[in-house]
Amino acid sequence: MFDFNYLNIVEAYKNIKNKVIKTPLISSEFINNLVGGKIYFKLENLQNTGSFKLRGASNKISKLTLDNKANGLVAYSSGNHAQAVAFASLQENISAKIIMPKNAPKIKIDNTQRYGAEVILYDPKTQIREEIGQDIAVTENRTLIKPYDDFDIIAGQGTAGYEIAEELNHLSIIPDIYLCCCGGGGLIAGTSTYLKYKFPKIESYAVEPYGFDDTKLSLENKKIISNKPSFESICDAIITPQPGNITFPLNLKALAGGIVVKDEEVKSTIKILAEHLKIIVEPGGAVAATAALTKKIDMKNKTVVVMISGGNIDLEMFANL
Amino acid sequence: MFDFNYLNIVEAYKNIKNKVIKTPLISSEFINNLVGGKIYFKLENLQNTGSFKLRGASNKISKLTLDNKANGLVAYSSGNHAQAVAFASLQENISAKIIMPKNAPKIKIDNTQRYGAEVILYDPKTQIREEIGQDIAVTENRTLIKPYDDFDIIAGQGTAGYEIAEELNHLSIIPDIYLCCCGGGGLIAGTSTYLKYKFPKIESYAVEPYGFDDTKLSLENKKIISNKPSFESICDAIITPQPGNITFPLNLKALAGGIVVKDEEVKSTIKILAEHLKIIVEPGGAVAATAALTKKIDMKNKTVVVMISGGNIDLEMFANL
Fold first, then answer.
1. Could you tell me where the beta strands, DSSP code E, fall in chain A?
2. Where in chain B is CATH 3.40.50.1100?
Protein backbone atom coordinates (compact mmCIF):
# COMPACT_ATOMS: atom_id res chain seq x y z
CA MET A 1 0.00 0.00 0.00
CA PHE A 2 1.03 3.58 -0.74
CA ASP A 3 2.62 4.93 2.42
CA PHE A 4 0.36 7.89 3.15
CA ASN A 5 1.72 10.14 5.87
CA TYR A 6 2.02 13.74 7.09
CA LEU A 7 4.33 14.66 4.21
CA ASN A 8 1.48 14.17 1.75
CA ILE A 9 -0.47 16.75 3.71
CA VAL A 10 2.43 19.21 3.80
CA GLU A 11 2.68 18.86 0.01
CA ALA A 12 -1.08 19.31 -0.40
CA TYR A 13 -0.96 22.48 1.68
CA LYS A 14 1.63 23.94 -0.68
CA ASN A 15 -0.65 23.11 -3.61
CA ILE A 16 -3.81 24.68 -2.25
CA LYS A 17 -2.91 27.33 0.31
CA ASN A 18 -3.66 30.12 -2.13
CA LYS A 19 -6.93 28.50 -3.18
CA VAL A 20 -8.59 28.05 0.19
CA ILE A 21 -9.37 30.21 3.20
CA LYS A 22 -7.20 29.63 6.25
CA THR A 23 -10.20 29.14 8.50
CA PRO A 24 -10.22 30.30 12.12
CA LEU A 25 -9.82 28.26 15.28
CA ILE A 26 -12.19 29.80 17.81
CA SER A 27 -13.14 29.22 21.41
CA SER A 28 -16.01 30.49 23.54
CA GLU A 29 -15.71 31.00 27.28
CA PHE A 30 -19.41 30.28 27.61
CA ILE A 31 -19.06 26.86 26.01
CA ASN A 32 -15.82 26.12 27.88
CA ASN A 33 -17.64 26.73 31.15
CA LEU A 34 -20.46 24.47 29.97
CA VAL A 35 -18.19 21.48 29.34
CA GLY A 36 -15.43 22.08 31.87
CA GLY A 37 -12.66 21.90 29.29
CA LYS A 38 -11.12 24.16 26.69
CA ILE A 39 -12.55 23.67 23.20
CA TYR A 40 -11.08 25.04 19.98
CA PHE A 41 -13.55 24.93 17.13
CA LYS A 42 -12.10 24.73 13.60
CA LEU A 43 -14.58 26.65 11.46
CA GLU A 44 -14.59 24.96 8.06
CA ASN A 45 -18.15 26.20 7.61
CA LEU A 46 -16.47 29.55 6.88
CA GLN A 47 -14.49 27.94 4.04
CA ASN A 48 -15.37 29.00 0.50
CA THR A 49 -18.33 26.81 -0.67
CA GLY A 50 -19.29 26.40 3.00
CA SER A 51 -17.32 23.25 3.80
CA PHE A 52 -13.86 21.67 4.01
CA LYS A 53 -14.48 19.79 0.76
CA LEU A 54 -12.84 22.57 -1.26
CA ARG A 55 -9.48 21.48 0.16
CA GLY A 56 -9.58 17.96 -1.29
CA ALA A 57 -11.14 19.02 -4.58
CA SER A 58 -8.53 21.78 -5.06
CA ASN A 59 -5.67 19.41 -4.31
CA LYS A 60 -6.97 16.75 -6.69
CA ILE A 61 -7.53 19.24 -9.50
CA SER A 62 -4.06 20.74 -8.97
CA LYS A 63 -2.62 17.36 -9.94
CA LEU A 64 -4.52 16.88 -13.19
CA THR A 65 -2.87 17.19 -16.60
CA LEU A 66 -3.94 19.86 -19.07
CA ASP A 67 -5.58 17.07 -21.10
CA ASN A 68 -7.56 15.91 -18.06
CA LYS A 69 -8.70 19.46 -17.47
CA ALA A 70 -9.71 19.97 -21.09
CA ASN A 71 -11.85 16.82 -21.00
CA GLY A 72 -13.65 17.88 -17.87
CA LEU A 73 -14.61 16.32 -14.55
CA VAL A 74 -17.41 14.27 -13.09
CA ALA A 75 -18.23 13.80 -9.41
CA TYR A 76 -20.97 12.33 -7.22
CA SER A 77 -21.84 13.84 -3.90
CA SER A 78 -24.63 14.49 -1.43
CA GLY A 79 -23.78 18.15 -1.81
CA ASN A 80 -20.66 19.56 -0.20
CA HIS A 81 -18.17 17.76 -2.44
CA ALA A 82 -20.45 18.76 -5.32
CA GLN A 83 -20.17 22.46 -4.54
CA ALA A 84 -16.44 22.17 -3.97
CA VAL A 85 -15.74 20.44 -7.29
CA ALA A 86 -18.02 22.90 -9.10
CA PHE A 87 -16.36 25.92 -7.49
CA ALA A 88 -12.79 24.68 -8.03
CA SER A 89 -13.64 23.83 -11.67
CA LEU A 90 -15.10 27.29 -12.21
CA GLN A 91 -11.85 28.89 -10.98
CA GLU A 92 -9.93 27.06 -13.70
CA ASN A 93 -12.54 27.03 -16.46
CA ILE A 94 -12.99 23.27 -16.33
CA SER A 95 -16.29 21.64 -17.34
CA ALA A 96 -17.90 19.73 -14.45
CA LYS A 97 -20.85 17.32 -14.27
CA ILE A 98 -22.08 16.56 -10.79
CA ILE A 99 -24.35 13.69 -9.79
CA MET A 100 -26.49 14.53 -6.76
CA PRO A 101 -29.35 12.78 -4.97
CA LYS A 102 -32.67 14.40 -5.84
CA ASN A 103 -33.41 14.85 -2.11
CA ALA A 104 -30.20 16.80 -1.42
CA PRO A 105 -30.68 20.13 0.43
CA LYS A 106 -31.83 22.80 -1.99
CA ILE A 107 -29.00 25.15 -0.97
CA LYS A 108 -26.46 22.54 -2.08
CA ILE A 109 -28.07 21.89 -5.47
CA ASP A 110 -28.59 25.63 -6.10
CA ASN A 111 -25.01 26.55 -5.25
CA THR A 112 -23.55 23.73 -7.35
CA GLN A 113 -25.47 25.07 -10.36
CA ARG A 114 -24.56 28.64 -9.45
CA TYR A 115 -20.89 27.66 -9.68
CA GLY A 116 -21.52 26.65 -13.28
CA ALA A 117 -21.64 22.86 -13.00
CA GLU A 118 -24.18 20.67 -14.77
CA VAL A 119 -26.16 18.86 -12.07
CA ILE A 120 -27.55 15.39 -12.76
CA LEU A 121 -30.11 14.32 -10.14
CA TYR A 122 -30.60 10.63 -9.32
CA ASP A 123 -32.90 8.64 -7.05
CA PRO A 124 -30.79 7.21 -4.23
CA LYS A 125 -33.43 4.53 -3.58
CA THR A 126 -33.20 2.98 -7.04
CA GLN A 127 -29.92 4.16 -8.56
CA ILE A 128 -26.26 3.78 -7.58
CA ARG A 129 -24.28 6.98 -7.88
CA GLU A 130 -20.93 5.24 -8.35
CA GLU A 131 -22.29 3.50 -11.46
CA ILE A 132 -23.64 6.71 -12.99
CA GLY A 133 -20.32 8.43 -12.29
CA GLN A 134 -18.25 5.60 -13.73
CA ASP A 135 -20.45 5.52 -16.82
CA ILE A 136 -20.07 9.25 -17.53
CA ALA A 137 -16.33 9.09 -16.83
CA VAL A 138 -15.84 6.35 -19.41
CA THR A 139 -18.20 7.55 -22.16
CA GLU A 140 -17.18 11.23 -21.93
CA ASN A 141 -13.54 10.69 -20.98
CA ARG A 142 -14.01 12.82 -17.86
CA THR A 143 -11.88 12.44 -14.75
CA LEU A 144 -13.87 11.12 -11.80
CA ILE A 145 -13.23 13.13 -8.61
CA LYS A 146 -14.19 10.76 -5.79
CA PRO A 147 -15.50 12.27 -2.55
CA TYR A 148 -13.11 10.54 -0.14
CA ASP A 149 -11.48 7.31 -1.27
CA ASP A 150 -8.50 8.93 -2.96
CA PHE A 151 -5.12 9.83 -1.44
CA ASP A 152 -5.05 13.29 -3.03
CA ILE A 153 -8.50 14.06 -1.64
CA ILE A 154 -7.53 12.81 1.83
CA ALA A 155 -4.29 14.83 1.78
CA GLY A 156 -6.27 17.91 0.74
CA GLN A 157 -8.79 17.54 3.57
CA GLY A 158 -5.84 16.92 5.89
CA THR A 159 -4.66 20.48 5.33
CA ALA A 160 -7.35 21.58 7.81
CA GLY A 161 -5.34 19.59 10.36
CA TYR A 162 -2.15 21.29 9.19
CA GLU A 163 -3.72 24.69 9.90
CA ILE A 164 -4.99 23.54 13.31
CA ALA A 165 -1.50 22.33 14.28
CA GLU A 166 0.16 25.55 13.08
CA GLU A 167 -2.22 27.68 15.12
CA LEU A 168 -1.96 25.55 18.27
CA ASN A 169 1.83 25.57 18.00
CA HIS A 170 1.74 29.33 17.72
CA LEU A 171 -0.29 29.42 20.95
CA SER A 172 2.01 26.83 22.61
CA ILE A 173 -0.96 24.52 23.15
CA ILE A 174 -0.85 20.73 23.01
CA PRO A 175 -4.33 19.29 22.45
CA ASP A 176 -5.52 16.18 24.30
CA ILE A 177 -8.51 15.22 22.18
CA TYR A 178 -9.68 15.69 18.60
CA LEU A 179 -13.34 15.20 17.67
CA CYS A 180 -14.28 15.06 13.98
CA CYS A 181 -17.33 14.07 11.99
CA CYS A 182 -17.00 10.96 9.86
CA GLY A 183 -18.90 10.00 6.70
CA GLY A 184 -16.62 8.30 4.19
CA GLY A 185 -13.75 9.25 6.48
CA GLY A 186 -11.60 11.45 4.25
CA LEU A 187 -11.52 14.52 6.48
CA ILE A 188 -10.81 12.63 9.67
CA ALA A 189 -8.20 10.39 8.00
CA GLY A 190 -6.24 13.36 6.69
CA THR A 191 -6.57 15.61 9.72
CA SER A 192 -5.99 12.92 12.37
CA THR A 193 -2.92 11.64 10.50
CA TYR A 194 -1.40 15.10 10.61
CA LEU A 195 -2.44 15.85 14.20
CA LYS A 196 -1.03 12.52 15.41
CA TYR A 197 2.28 13.35 13.74
CA LYS A 198 2.41 16.75 15.45
CA PHE A 199 0.87 15.69 18.78
CA PRO A 200 1.64 11.96 19.24
CA LYS A 201 -0.48 11.62 22.40
CA ILE A 202 -3.66 13.14 20.94
CA GLU A 203 -6.77 10.93 21.06
CA SER A 204 -8.86 11.33 17.93
CA TYR A 205 -12.48 10.17 17.71
CA ALA A 206 -14.77 9.72 14.71
CA VAL A 207 -18.24 11.09 15.47
CA GLU A 208 -21.18 9.63 13.54
CA PRO A 209 -24.99 9.90 13.58
CA TYR A 210 -27.06 7.15 15.19
CA GLY A 211 -27.62 4.30 12.70
CA PHE A 212 -24.61 5.38 10.62
CA ASP A 213 -21.81 4.36 12.96
CA ASP A 214 -20.06 2.17 10.40
CA THR A 215 -16.65 3.61 11.21
CA LYS A 216 -17.11 3.06 14.98
CA LEU A 217 -18.16 -0.55 14.38
CA SER A 218 -15.38 -1.10 11.86
CA LEU A 219 -12.77 0.31 14.24
CA GLU A 220 -14.03 -1.97 17.02
CA ASN A 221 -13.92 -5.00 14.74
CA LYS A 222 -10.76 -3.94 12.92
CA LYS A 223 -12.46 -4.59 9.57
CA ILE A 224 -14.90 -2.76 7.33
CA ILE A 225 -18.52 -3.23 8.46
CA SER A 226 -21.54 -1.65 6.74
CA ASN A 227 -24.46 0.11 8.39
CA LYS A 228 -27.75 -1.72 8.56
CA PRO A 229 -30.15 -0.18 6.04
CA SER A 230 -33.43 1.55 6.98
CA PHE A 231 -32.01 4.22 9.27
CA GLU A 232 -32.51 7.91 8.58
CA SER A 233 -30.73 11.02 9.83
CA ILE A 234 -30.80 14.77 9.29
CA CYS A 235 -26.98 14.63 8.91
CA ASP A 236 -27.16 14.36 5.11
CA ALA A 237 -23.46 15.06 4.57
CA ILE A 238 -22.19 12.01 6.45
CA ILE A 239 -24.65 9.15 6.00
CA THR A 240 -22.34 6.97 3.92
CA PRO A 241 -23.00 3.21 3.93
CA GLN A 242 -19.53 2.06 5.00
CA PRO A 243 -15.94 3.28 5.53
CA GLY A 244 -13.78 3.77 2.45
CA ASN A 245 -11.28 1.16 1.39
CA ILE A 246 -8.52 3.75 1.50
CA THR A 247 -9.73 5.89 4.38
CA PHE A 248 -10.41 3.02 6.79
CA PRO A 249 -6.86 1.65 7.16
CA LEU A 250 -5.64 5.20 7.81
CA ASN A 251 -8.34 5.74 10.42
CA LEU A 252 -7.62 2.38 12.04
CA LYS A 253 -4.05 3.60 12.49
CA ALA A 254 -4.82 7.11 13.71
CA LEU A 255 -8.06 6.96 15.71
CA ALA A 256 -8.80 6.08 19.32
CA GLY A 257 -12.42 5.15 18.65
CA GLY A 258 -15.88 6.24 17.57
CA ILE A 259 -18.72 8.21 19.19
CA VAL A 260 -22.41 8.17 18.22
CA VAL A 261 -24.79 11.14 18.50
CA LYS A 262 -28.55 11.41 17.96
CA ASP A 263 -30.38 13.80 15.64
CA GLU A 264 -32.16 15.51 18.54
CA GLU A 265 -28.79 16.19 20.21
CA VAL A 266 -27.47 17.58 16.93
CA LYS A 267 -30.42 19.97 16.68
CA SER A 268 -29.77 21.30 20.20
CA THR A 269 -26.12 21.74 19.33
CA ILE A 270 -26.90 23.73 16.19
CA LYS A 271 -28.92 26.10 18.39
CA ILE A 272 -26.16 26.47 20.99
CA LEU A 273 -23.58 27.13 18.25
CA ALA A 274 -25.87 29.79 16.76
CA GLU A 275 -26.53 31.47 20.10
CA HIS A 276 -23.02 31.38 21.54
CA LEU A 277 -20.59 31.06 18.61
CA LYS A 278 -22.75 33.07 16.16
CA ILE A 279 -22.19 30.53 13.41
CA ILE A 280 -24.44 28.54 11.12
CA VAL A 281 -23.61 24.85 11.05
CA GLU A 282 -25.27 22.07 9.08
CA PRO A 283 -26.29 18.87 10.90
CA GLY A 284 -23.44 16.74 9.55
CA GLY A 285 -21.00 19.51 10.38
CA ALA A 286 -22.22 19.71 13.97
CA VAL A 287 -21.83 16.09 15.13
CA ALA A 288 -18.34 16.57 16.62
CA ALA A 289 -19.56 19.62 18.54
CA THR A 290 -22.54 17.53 19.64
CA ALA A 291 -20.25 14.86 21.07
CA ALA A 292 -18.48 17.61 23.04
CA LEU A 293 -21.57 19.48 24.26
CA THR A 294 -23.34 16.30 25.36
CA LYS A 295 -20.13 15.23 27.12
CA LYS A 296 -19.93 11.85 25.44
CA ILE A 297 -16.32 11.84 26.52
CA ASP A 298 -14.56 13.16 29.62
CA MET A 299 -13.23 16.63 28.81
CA LYS A 300 -12.58 17.83 32.37
CA ASN A 301 -9.59 20.19 32.16
CA LYS A 302 -8.72 18.82 28.73
CA THR A 303 -7.91 20.75 25.58
CA VAL A 304 -10.17 19.57 22.80
CA VAL A 305 -10.17 20.39 19.09
CA VAL A 306 -13.64 20.13 17.52
CA MET A 307 -14.13 20.14 13.77
CA ILE A 308 -17.04 22.19 12.43
CA SER A 309 -16.98 20.78 8.91
CA GLY A 310 -19.71 22.64 7.05
CA GLY A 311 -22.57 25.10 7.15
CA ASN A 312 -24.70 24.28 4.12
CA ILE A 313 -28.09 23.98 5.76
CA ASP A 314 -31.28 25.24 4.11
CA LEU A 315 -32.07 28.46 5.94
CA GLU A 316 -35.69 27.34 6.25
CA MET A 317 -34.62 24.23 8.15
CA PHE A 318 -32.29 26.34 10.25
CA ALA A 319 -35.11 28.77 11.06
CA ASN A 320 -37.35 25.86 12.06
CA LEU A 321 -34.81 24.72 14.61
CA MET B 1 -7.07 67.82 24.71
CA PHE B 2 -5.43 64.51 25.50
CA ASP B 3 -3.51 63.50 22.39
CA PHE B 4 -5.12 60.18 21.58
CA ASN B 5 -3.23 58.23 18.91
CA TYR B 6 -2.19 54.77 17.71
CA LEU B 7 0.13 54.30 20.71
CA ASN B 8 -2.87 54.22 23.04
CA ILE B 9 -4.21 51.32 21.00
CA VAL B 10 -0.88 49.48 21.03
CA GLU B 11 -0.87 49.84 24.81
CA ALA B 12 -4.48 48.67 25.07
CA TYR B 13 -3.66 45.58 23.01
CA LYS B 14 -0.94 44.65 25.47
CA ASN B 15 -3.46 45.00 28.31
CA ILE B 16 -6.20 42.86 26.81
CA LYS B 17 -4.69 40.45 24.30
CA ASN B 18 -5.00 37.55 26.72
CA LYS B 19 -8.56 38.48 27.62
CA VAL B 20 -10.14 38.63 24.18
CA ILE B 21 -10.34 36.38 21.15
CA LYS B 22 -8.20 37.38 18.19
CA THR B 23 -11.13 37.29 15.81
CA PRO B 24 -10.78 36.17 12.20
CA LEU B 25 -10.65 38.27 9.05
CA ILE B 26 -12.56 36.30 6.44
CA SER B 27 -13.45 36.71 2.79
CA SER B 28 -15.92 34.93 0.54
CA GLU B 29 -15.37 34.47 -3.17
CA PHE B 30 -19.12 34.48 -3.68
CA ILE B 31 -19.51 37.91 -2.07
CA ASN B 32 -16.39 39.27 -3.80
CA ASN B 33 -17.92 38.33 -7.14
CA LEU B 34 -21.17 40.00 -6.10
CA VAL B 35 -19.55 43.38 -5.39
CA GLY B 36 -16.60 43.33 -7.79
CA GLY B 37 -14.04 44.03 -5.09
CA LYS B 38 -12.20 42.10 -2.41
CA ILE B 39 -13.86 42.29 1.00
CA TYR B 40 -12.29 41.21 4.28
CA PHE B 41 -14.87 40.82 7.04
CA LYS B 42 -13.62 41.28 10.61
CA LEU B 43 -15.78 38.92 12.65
CA GLU B 44 -16.26 40.55 16.03
CA ASN B 45 -19.54 38.65 16.35
CA LEU B 46 -17.28 35.68 17.17
CA GLN B 47 -15.77 37.63 20.08
CA ASN B 48 -16.58 36.40 23.58
CA THR B 49 -19.95 37.95 24.60
CA GLY B 50 -20.82 38.20 20.91
CA SER B 51 -19.46 41.67 20.18
CA PHE B 52 -16.36 43.91 20.12
CA LYS B 53 -17.48 45.61 23.33
CA LEU B 54 -15.42 43.18 25.42
CA ARG B 55 -12.27 44.92 24.16
CA GLY B 56 -13.11 48.33 25.60
CA ALA B 57 -14.57 46.96 28.82
CA SER B 58 -11.50 44.77 29.42
CA ASN B 59 -9.13 47.66 28.79
CA LYS B 60 -11.02 50.01 31.10
CA ILE B 61 -11.19 47.42 33.87
CA SER B 62 -7.47 46.61 33.50
CA LYS B 63 -6.75 50.22 34.53
CA LEU B 64 -8.87 50.31 37.69
CA THR B 65 -7.29 50.29 41.14
CA LEU B 66 -7.94 47.45 43.57
CA ASP B 67 -10.17 49.83 45.53
CA ASN B 68 -12.22 50.62 42.41
CA LYS B 69 -12.62 46.92 41.78
CA ALA B 70 -13.67 46.20 45.36
CA ASN B 71 -16.37 48.89 45.18
CA GLY B 72 -17.80 47.50 41.96
CA LEU B 73 -18.91 48.89 38.61
CA VAL B 74 -21.98 50.36 37.03
CA ALA B 75 -22.72 50.70 33.32
CA TYR B 76 -25.60 51.62 31.03
CA SER B 77 -26.02 49.98 27.67
CA SER B 78 -28.52 48.83 25.06
CA GLY B 79 -27.01 45.39 25.49
CA ASN B 80 -23.60 44.64 24.02
CA HIS B 81 -21.60 46.87 26.36
CA ALA B 82 -23.77 45.42 29.15
CA GLN B 83 -22.75 41.86 28.38
CA ALA B 84 -19.12 42.86 27.96
CA VAL B 85 -18.92 44.67 31.31
CA ALA B 86 -20.75 41.80 33.02
CA PHE B 87 -18.47 39.17 31.48
CA ALA B 88 -15.24 41.08 32.18
CA SER B 89 -16.38 41.73 35.76
CA LEU B 90 -17.16 38.05 36.26
CA GLN B 91 -13.63 37.11 35.17
CA GLU B 92 -12.21 39.25 37.97
CA ASN B 93 -14.89 38.76 40.61
CA ILE B 94 -16.05 42.37 40.45
CA SER B 95 -19.63 43.32 41.34
CA ALA B 96 -21.47 44.90 38.38
CA LYS B 97 -24.80 46.71 38.08
CA ILE B 98 -26.03 47.25 34.55
CA ILE B 99 -28.76 49.63 33.45
CA MET B 100 -30.55 48.40 30.33
CA PRO B 101 -33.62 49.59 28.41
CA LYS B 102 -36.59 47.34 29.15
CA ASN B 103 -37.09 46.79 25.39
CA ALA B 104 -33.54 45.48 24.82
CA PRO B 105 -33.30 42.15 22.95
CA LYS B 106 -34.00 39.28 25.33
CA ILE B 107 -30.73 37.53 24.44
CA LYS B 108 -28.79 40.58 25.64
CA ILE B 109 -30.65 40.88 28.97
CA ASP B 110 -30.46 37.11 29.58
CA ASN B 111 -26.74 36.91 28.89
CA THR B 112 -25.95 39.94 31.05
CA GLN B 113 -27.68 38.23 33.97
CA ARG B 114 -26.06 34.91 33.12
CA TYR B 115 -22.66 36.58 33.48
CA GLY B 116 -23.62 37.41 37.04
CA ALA B 117 -24.46 41.12 36.77
CA GLU B 118 -27.43 42.75 38.44
CA VAL B 119 -29.61 44.17 35.64
CA ILE B 120 -31.68 47.31 36.29
CA LEU B 121 -34.29 47.89 33.57
CA TYR B 122 -35.43 51.41 32.72
CA ASP B 123 -37.97 52.93 30.37
CA PRO B 124 -36.06 54.79 27.62
CA LYS B 125 -39.16 56.91 26.88
CA THR B 126 -39.37 58.42 30.35
CA GLN B 127 -35.99 57.88 32.02
CA ILE B 128 -32.44 58.98 31.16
CA ARG B 129 -29.88 56.22 31.56
CA GLU B 130 -26.97 58.58 32.16
CA GLU B 131 -28.78 59.99 35.20
CA ILE B 132 -29.53 56.57 36.67
CA GLY B 133 -25.92 55.53 36.11
CA GLN B 134 -24.50 58.70 37.64
CA ASP B 135 -26.81 58.33 40.63
CA ILE B 136 -25.73 54.74 41.36
CA ALA B 137 -22.07 55.62 40.81
CA VAL B 138 -22.24 58.38 43.42
CA THR B 139 -24.41 56.74 46.06
CA GLU B 140 -22.71 53.32 45.89
CA ASN B 141 -19.21 54.56 45.08
CA ARG B 142 -19.13 52.40 41.95
CA THR B 143 -16.98 53.20 38.92
CA LEU B 144 -19.08 54.14 35.90
CA ILE B 145 -17.95 52.35 32.75
CA LYS B 146 -19.20 54.49 29.87
CA PRO B 147 -20.07 52.78 26.59
CA TYR B 148 -17.96 54.95 24.28
CA ASP B 149 -17.04 58.45 25.45
CA ASP B 150 -13.86 57.41 27.28
CA PHE B 151 -10.31 57.18 25.92
CA ASP B 152 -9.66 53.78 27.52
CA ILE B 153 -12.84 52.37 25.99
CA ILE B 154 -11.98 53.82 22.56
CA ALA B 155 -8.42 52.45 22.76
CA GLY B 156 -9.80 49.03 23.71
CA GLN B 157 -12.21 48.94 20.77
CA GLY B 158 -9.34 50.12 18.57
CA THR B 159 -7.52 46.84 19.19
CA ALA B 160 -9.84 45.26 16.61
CA GLY B 161 -8.13 47.60 14.13
CA TYR B 162 -4.73 46.55 15.44
CA GLU B 163 -5.58 42.92 14.67
CA ILE B 164 -6.89 43.82 11.21
CA ALA B 165 -3.67 45.68 10.39
CA GLU B 166 -1.48 42.85 11.67
CA GLU B 167 -3.30 40.32 9.54
CA LEU B 168 -3.33 42.46 6.39
CA ASN B 169 0.38 43.18 6.84
CA HIS B 170 1.00 39.45 7.12
CA LEU B 171 -0.84 39.00 3.80
CA SER B 172 0.99 42.00 2.25
CA ILE B 173 -2.33 43.69 1.56
CA ILE B 174 -2.97 47.44 1.68
CA PRO B 175 -6.68 48.18 2.10
CA ASP B 176 -8.36 51.02 0.19
CA ILE B 177 -11.57 51.37 2.19
CA TYR B 178 -12.78 50.66 5.71
CA LEU B 179 -16.49 50.42 6.48
CA CYS B 180 -17.61 50.35 10.11
CA CYS B 181 -20.88 50.73 11.98
CA CYS B 182 -21.26 53.84 14.12
CA GLY B 183 -23.43 54.38 17.18
CA GLY B 184 -21.64 56.48 19.77
CA GLY B 185 -18.55 56.12 17.62
CA GLY B 186 -16.11 54.37 19.95
CA LEU B 187 -15.36 51.39 17.73
CA ILE B 188 -14.87 53.39 14.56
CA ALA B 189 -12.83 56.10 16.35
CA GLY B 190 -10.39 53.53 17.74
CA THR B 191 -10.13 51.29 14.70
CA SER B 192 -9.98 54.05 12.09
CA THR B 193 -7.29 55.90 14.08
CA TYR B 194 -5.12 52.80 14.06
CA LEU B 195 -5.84 51.89 10.42
CA LYS B 196 -5.06 55.43 9.26
CA TYR B 197 -1.72 55.24 11.07
CA LYS B 198 -0.87 51.93 9.38
CA PHE B 199 -2.42 52.72 5.99
CA PRO B 200 -2.38 56.53 5.56
CA LYS B 201 -4.38 56.45 2.30
CA ILE B 202 -7.27 54.35 3.63
CA GLU B 203 -10.74 55.92 3.36
CA SER B 204 -12.86 55.09 6.41
CA TYR B 205 -16.63 55.54 6.47
CA ALA B 206 -19.10 55.51 9.35
CA VAL B 207 -22.20 53.50 8.45
CA GLU B 208 -25.45 54.35 10.24
CA PRO B 209 -29.14 53.37 10.03
CA TYR B 210 -31.62 55.67 8.32
CA GLY B 211 -32.80 58.33 10.77
CA PHE B 212 -29.76 57.85 13.00
CA ASP B 213 -27.10 59.41 10.77
CA ASP B 214 -25.92 61.88 13.41
CA THR B 215 -22.26 61.14 12.75
CA LYS B 216 -22.66 61.59 8.98
CA LEU B 217 -24.42 64.94 9.51
CA SER B 218 -21.92 66.00 12.14
CA LEU B 219 -18.97 65.15 9.89
CA GLU B 220 -20.52 67.15 7.04
CA ASN B 221 -21.10 70.14 9.34
CA LYS B 222 -17.89 69.70 11.29
CA LYS B 223 -19.82 69.98 14.56
CA ILE B 224 -21.97 67.70 16.70
CA ILE B 225 -25.53 67.45 15.41
CA SER B 226 -28.27 65.32 17.00
CA ASN B 227 -30.71 63.04 15.22
CA LYS B 228 -34.28 64.20 14.89
CA PRO B 229 -36.45 62.23 17.31
CA SER B 230 -39.30 59.89 16.22
CA PHE B 231 -37.30 57.57 14.01
CA GLU B 232 -37.11 53.83 14.70
CA SER B 233 -34.69 51.14 13.54
CA ILE B 234 -34.06 47.43 14.09
CA CYS B 235 -30.38 48.30 14.63
CA ASP B 236 -30.78 48.52 18.43
CA ALA B 237 -27.03 48.53 19.12
CA ILE B 238 -26.28 51.78 17.30
CA ILE B 239 -29.26 54.12 17.63
CA THR B 240 -27.53 56.69 19.80
CA PRO B 241 -28.89 60.27 19.76
CA GLN B 242 -25.66 62.06 18.82
CA PRO B 243 -21.89 61.56 18.45
CA GLY B 244 -19.81 61.46 21.62
CA ASN B 245 -17.93 64.52 22.79
CA ILE B 246 -14.71 62.52 22.83
CA THR B 247 -15.35 60.20 19.89
CA PHE B 248 -16.48 62.90 17.46
CA PRO B 249 -13.24 64.93 17.24
CA LEU B 250 -11.33 61.68 16.65
CA ASN B 251 -13.75 60.65 13.93
CA LEU B 252 -13.62 64.08 12.33
CA LYS B 253 -9.86 63.59 12.03
CA ALA B 254 -9.90 60.00 10.80
CA LEU B 255 -13.02 59.53 8.66
CA ALA B 256 -13.74 60.28 5.01
CA GLY B 257 -17.51 60.47 5.51
CA GLY B 258 -20.73 58.72 6.44
CA ILE B 259 -23.06 56.25 4.72
CA VAL B 260 -26.73 55.57 5.51
CA VAL B 261 -28.48 52.19 5.13
CA LYS B 262 -32.12 51.19 5.51
CA ASP B 263 -33.55 48.49 7.77
CA GLU B 264 -34.84 46.49 4.79
CA GLU B 265 -31.35 46.47 3.27
CA VAL B 266 -29.92 45.36 6.60
CA LYS B 267 -32.37 42.43 6.72
CA SER B 268 -31.32 41.26 3.25
CA THR B 269 -27.69 41.54 4.27
CA ILE B 270 -28.21 39.42 7.38
CA LYS B 271 -29.65 36.72 5.10
CA ILE B 272 -26.75 36.89 2.65
CA LEU B 273 -24.22 36.72 5.48
CA ALA B 274 -26.03 33.68 6.88
CA GLU B 275 -26.19 31.91 3.53
CA HIS B 276 -22.72 32.70 2.24
CA LEU B 277 -20.53 33.46 5.25
CA LYS B 278 -22.37 31.07 7.62
CA ILE B 279 -22.42 33.64 10.39
CA ILE B 280 -25.12 35.16 12.57
CA VAL B 281 -25.01 38.94 12.67
CA GLU B 282 -27.26 41.33 14.55
CA PRO B 283 -28.79 44.29 12.69
CA GLY B 284 -26.46 46.92 14.16
CA GLY B 285 -23.51 44.65 13.43
CA ALA B 286 -24.52 44.26 9.80
CA VAL B 287 -24.76 47.89 8.64
CA ALA B 288 -21.19 48.10 7.31
CA ALA B 289 -21.72 44.88 5.35
CA THR B 290 -25.00 46.36 4.11
CA ALA B 291 -23.20 49.43 2.77
CA ALA B 292 -20.85 47.08 0.90
CA LEU B 293 -23.47 44.67 -0.46
CA THR B 294 -25.77 47.46 -1.64
CA LYS B 295 -22.75 49.13 -3.26
CA LYS B 296 -23.27 52.49 -1.58
CA ILE B 297 -19.68 53.19 -2.50
CA ASP B 298 -17.56 52.25 -5.52
CA MET B 299 -15.62 49.10 -4.64
CA LYS B 300 -14.60 48.05 -8.16
CA ASN B 301 -11.22 46.33 -7.83
CA LYS B 302 -10.79 47.82 -4.36
CA THR B 303 -9.78 46.07 -1.17
CA VAL B 304 -12.34 46.77 1.51
CA VAL B 305 -12.34 45.95 5.21
CA VAL B 306 -15.84 45.52 6.62
CA MET B 307 -16.48 45.40 10.36
CA ILE B 308 -19.01 42.83 11.57
CA SER B 309 -19.37 44.19 15.07
CA GLY B 310 -21.78 41.83 16.82
CA GLY B 311 -24.10 38.84 16.63
CA ASN B 312 -26.49 39.24 19.54
CA ILE B 313 -29.79 38.90 17.75
CA ASP B 314 -32.74 37.03 19.27
CA LEU B 315 -32.82 33.73 17.41
CA GLU B 316 -36.57 34.15 16.93
CA MET B 317 -36.04 37.40 15.08
CA PHE B 318 -33.26 35.79 13.09
CA ALA B 319 -35.52 32.88 12.15
CA ASN B 320 -38.24 35.31 11.04
CA LEU B 321 -35.84 36.92 8.59
1. 25-26, 38-43, 73-76, 96-101, 118-122, 143-144, 177-181, 203-209, 257-261, 303-308
2. 6-51+151-320, 54-144
